[in-house]
Amino acid sequence: MGVRNIYVAATKQHVGKTTSTLGLVTAFKNKGIKVGYCKPVGQQSINFNSIQVDKDALLFSDVMNFELIADIHSPVILGPGATTEFIDHPEAFQYRQRIEYAASILEPSKELVIYEGTGHPGVGSVVGLSNADVAKLLDSGVVMIVEGGIGSTIDMLSLCIAKFQQKNVPLLGVIVNKVHEAKLEKVKHYVGKKLQEMKIPLLGVVPYDRSLAFPLLRSIC
User: What are phi and psi of 114, to 5 degrees?
Assistant: First the structure.
């Protein structure tokens, strides 16, 4: 793709961002590329060795077999109360510095780092860490995950990519996920045609598979 860092974003929650990230990591590893993973901003954390880490970071440490280090793989957690605390005392937080530190440690040892976004593109804006802000900070190109459909899919995509375009973050392409088997070719044709007009590559169309909604039980335990 011609970039060192990839930031995986999604138009909303639960469209398959984590499973798509897993697919990308696996594909690059199968090509012999040294891939790193980081969840820069997390919302759903769990206790790991007495430290709060994002649940997806723990999942990927299992799948990719790396030692999970919170400061590197899950540097920022926006837990309950984080936003109001930040608004009251923004000077007390060093969120951007934490993310930059994680990147400075992770990137030198990898050929490619995949950063997984959180929620929809606007999540984190209140603390200056929207998905577009973080992708820009990490000098990453974006792969956008959208849910299968045609009209609603394009509408939501147009809304979401505007946030990245405002930050001059390159859009590497789109993966259309959770497409019902009977509509696979139709969605591929029409979404692909519209994306071509928008000069955005269609990277893949993934059929709906219920089992992919639950990749590893440990990720939610």
Answer: -105, 120
Q: Of 119, 157, 122, 115, give the one whose Cα is nearest residue 139.
A: 115
Best CATH choice for the domain 5-213 from the list 3.60.20.40, 3.50.50.60, 3.20.20.80, 3.40.50.300: 3.40.50.300
Q: Residue 177 and residue 209: Cα distance in Å, rounded?
A: 10
In terms of Cβ atoms closer than 10 Å to its own Cβ (0-12, 13-18, 19+), residue 193 is: exposed
Check: CB of residue 113 under 8 Å from CB of residue 5. yes
User: What is the rounded CA–CA span in Å between residue 11 and residue 142?
Assistant: 12
Per-residue pLDDT tens over the stretch 67-121: 999 999 999 999 888 899 999 998 889 999 999 999 999 999 999 999 999 988 8
| CA pair distance 207, 44, nearest whole angstrom | 27
The set of residues, in sequence order, having a beta carbon less than 8 Å from that of 84 and lying 6+ positions away, is none
Q: pTM of this prediction? A: 0.90
CA–CA gap between residue 74 and residue 37 (Å, rounded): 10
In the chain, where the domains are located: 5-213
Closest by alpha carbon to 201, among 156, 130, 141?
141
50: alpha, beta or left? (left if phi > 0; alpha if psi -120 to 50): left
Nearest to 137 by CA among 111, 112, 164, 161: 164
